[in-house]
Amino acid sequence: MNITIFFLVLFILLFMGIPVVYSIGLDCIFYVLVFHVSDLIQLPTKIYAQNDSYVLLAIPLFVMCGYLMEAGGISRRLVDFVYSLVGRQPGALGTVAILSCMVFAALTGSAVATTAAIGAIMFPMMVENGYDSKVAAGMICSAGALGPIIPPSVPMVIYGSTMGVSVADLFLGGIIPGILMGVTFIVINIVYAIRNKLPRSQEEFSVKKTLKAFWKSLGVLFLPVIILGGIYSGTFTPTEAGTVAVLYSLLLCIFYRAIDLKGFLEVCRKTILTAGSIMCIICISGMFAYILTVENIPQTIAAVVLPYMSSSVAFMLMMFIFLIIVGALMDSGPAILILAPIIAPIGVSLGLPAIYVGIMFCCILCMGAITPPFGITLFTIAPIAKETFGRVVKGALPFTIAAFVVLLVLCFVPRLVMLPFGGM
Questions:
Q1: Mean pLDDT on 294-317
Q2: pTM of the predicted model, to two decimals?
Q3: Closest CA to 101 of 325, 408, 403, 407
Q4: Is 289:341 a contact under the CB 8 Å cutoff?
């Protein structure tokens, strides 16, 4: 009964429109005061302990890297290089947009930064080349949603810190799902281009032009090599990789003369606001996790659910459906902090590897970025495309369905996700 009241109060506060941070905090204080499960003094200590984590330093660092890339106009160099490679194929501009989003995602790990940076460049070009505006907007925001899946990934940092799972392993596991979804988006784009007879570039392939574009983008393309190569070679931790990424991005902006002092201060302001809001949610979740632990809520829920879980496949299907709904209504950060301690242990108890559960948990939840009513990339692209939210949703629908199909396949064939770890 106490557990029911605990979650009921939380949902009431959320549906009243109270911000997540305050809803969780008020719910925990209410529960302690009413049911006397602990001393009230324990709550602020849990807040401090939750943020006292070296791993969490990676969040503001990768956020700042993303804003530096956006402010420095780095995305234009990526687009030019990718176009030099595939500019003569059917639906070339759509393919360029998707591939550019995938590469930019490997630089920033942010769905919003990826959608905004690539969308501002590619959307006008795609519409001019015959793409329906809603399809172009839907394609870009769908590819932008791969940002938190292709490493580095802020949600995966949050999950790793919350559940005690290796962040480097989560990053590694996100590569295959991200690439599979990206390739699926490209196939849909090519089919659309052929069916609608979009004009193809008549410009002949030029090795010289491609090499020139590659040279101009070399500094940018080298960044994911430094970040991921450094992590997996053991040269530095994910947190140290964030520091390297910021310094490297700043040096690139200076070298390209793409940012001034005013621009840098604006990057710092955006970083503080974005990272600050994320860290507030994380620290308040320490209180939430403490209540769950004291009351043995995860174990209680697992005991109720497990008899109905005939297999790990049934669990994955249940988790898929549930997280799709949650992702459509809630930001991935708070959802991970609230739900991961409850759901993930059930999957592990059914024999699934903890790293696999974590990867799929984050990937499914991150697809909420293109799922109405609160898909963040849908809102990001709408003003850029000067389209209504409803039309953007329609344009993104084929890509959203394709992403869900890929994730369902990965739920039923976990070996694909676990290939970087030698299979299951």
A1: 75
A2: 0.77
A3: 403
A4: yes
